[in-house]
């Protein structure tokens, strides 16, 4: 299976509309890949909090339309990263004045929406995304020919229980778009490898380059196999990281070293 992770540089001088067109062209250039992955909030920048509201879109908005067309043109499965999604209000207003979500979109090679995932863990410690965005509630997996994807986003990477839930739902390849800051790049690599090892799954983690609202991005998108071996890693700038991997290695690893069978569930907390 061939995956291409497009590590997009977010330049504050580039309009969202221009970036959307540029990224669609990059996706089309990946014809021949099986799966293409984009980063988190690449339309606005993950730390450009003041842009979330003005640039928010309905689920089937301009980014949806551009990425659906690009996936169909390239004939690839496309994890289109995430967008700030503006939902309808409880009153059903057509103006879209409901809550915001950090929402990932995944398209089939025909351009149909295969899944949408609203980020569960929002970053910010009572500010930024944690205040501006609502939390998703649902785990999302998608069956592709040869593997089942488990979908997570950026800060989710720090919460192993989410990935256990995805594995229990059948995930074999974990796809994680992110806007991870450069100052915590060591955590990015460490956690990507940890999630691969503990879940005996492939990890495809796609970050951004550039600077988001004054926050330098880590870049260094990474692909890790079920034993924790790094198969490919990007640098700091914009690039396309392409790697071939064998999804059958997941089943072989879990059979050869069946650690997941030894999980102890339902343990009682210590008595005081």
TrEMBL record:
Q: Where is the organism placed in the taxonomic lineage, from the top?
A: Bacteria, Bacillati, Actinomycetota, Actinomycetes, Kitasatosporales
Q: What UniProt keywords are attached to this protein's entry? A: Acyltransferase, Transferase
- This chain belongs to which protein, by name? Acyltransferase
Q: Which residues form the CN hydrolase domain?
A: 1-247
Query: What PANTHER family is this protein classified in?
Result: DEAMINATED GLUTATHIONE AMIDASE (PTHR23088:SF27), NITRILASE-RELATED (PTHR23088)
A Pfam match: CN_hydrolase
Superkingdom of the organism of origin: Bacteria
Alphabetical list of SUPFAM superfamilies matching this protein? Carbon-nitrogen hydrolase
Annotated family? Belongs to the carbon-nitrogen hydrolase superfamily. NIT1/NIT2 family.
Q: Which GO terms describe its molecular function?
A: acyltransferase activity
Is Endoplasmic reticulum one of the keywords? no
């Amino acid at each position: 299976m061939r995956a291409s992770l497009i590590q997009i540089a977010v330049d504050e001088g580039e309009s969202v509309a221009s970036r959307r067109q540029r990224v669609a062209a990059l996706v089309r250039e990946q014809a021949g890949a099986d799966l293409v992955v984009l980063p988190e909030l690449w339309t606005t920048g993950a730390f450009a909090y003041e842009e979330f509201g003005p640039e928010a879109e309905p689920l089937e908005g301009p980014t949806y339309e551009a990425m659906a067309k690009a996936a169909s043109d390239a004939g690839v499965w496309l994890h289109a990263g995430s967008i700030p999604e503006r939902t309808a209000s409880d009153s059903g207003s057509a103006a879209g004045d409901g809550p915001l979500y950090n929402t990932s979109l995944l398209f089939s090679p025909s351009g149909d929406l295969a899944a949408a995932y609203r980020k569960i863990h929002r970053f910010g410690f009572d500010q930024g995304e944690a205040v501006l965005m609502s939390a998703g509630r649902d785990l999302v997996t998608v069956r592709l020919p040869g593997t089942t994807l488990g979908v997570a986003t950026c800060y989710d990477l720090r919460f192993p229980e989410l990935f256990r839930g995805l594995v229990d739902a059948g995930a074999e390849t974990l796809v994680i778009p992110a806007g991870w800051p450069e100052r915590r790049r060591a955590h990015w690599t460490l956690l990507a490898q940890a999630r691969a090892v503990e879940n005996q799954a492939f990890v495809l983690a796609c970050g951004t380059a550039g600077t988001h609202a004054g926050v330098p991005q880590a870049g260094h998108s990474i692909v890790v196999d079920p034993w924790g071996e790094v198969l490919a890693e990007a640098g700091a700038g914009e690039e396309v990281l392409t790697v071939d991997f064998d999804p059958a290695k997941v089943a072989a690893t879990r059979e050869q070293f069946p650690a997941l069978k030894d999980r102890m569930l339902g343990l009682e907390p210590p008595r005081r």
